[in-house]
Amino acid sequence: MNFNEWFDEHIDNDEERSDIKTLVNHGADSGVANIIYTNECVELYDQFEREIWEAMFEDAEEQGFSTPEQMLVGCKRSDMLSDYESSKTLKVWYMCERRAHQKYNDEELWEKE
Question: How far apart are CA 103 and CA 50, in angstroms?
Fold first, then answer.
């Protein structure tokens, strides 16, 4: 199972798409099941570390940053980078928000056709 498959199974699993809307409109720190607690996020990060790193590195390069951490310094919860476990949580939240935006944008395009 990869991260996107995990996300689709554990986050995007209701008809109303309420968690997708929450992630897109308010961010992961507003509280979404399965990614609320640090221990949940640390476990997810450890499971998908390489995939998370590669996606974040790709996004950082596209935005003109040398590293994912430089990119994250500009986010509203950059305070979480100062602690090892919190930084893992922030990276999982980033991935969840990234996936939510991908799905939201794909749906918008699909609905316009």
Answer: 22
How many angstroms separate the CA atoms of 38 and 61, rounded?
Answer: 27
Amino acid at 111: E
> 63-101 pLDDT, tens per residue?
999 999 888 888 888 888 889 999 999 999 999 999 999
- Tell the residue number behind the tokens 């995007």, with chain if given: 12
Instruction: Indicate whether this model's pTM tops 0.70.
Output: yes
d(C-alpha 78, C-alpha 102), whole Å: 22
Q: Which two tokens stand for residue 62?
A: 């596209």
Degrees (nearest 5) of the Cα angle 59, 81, 4? 40
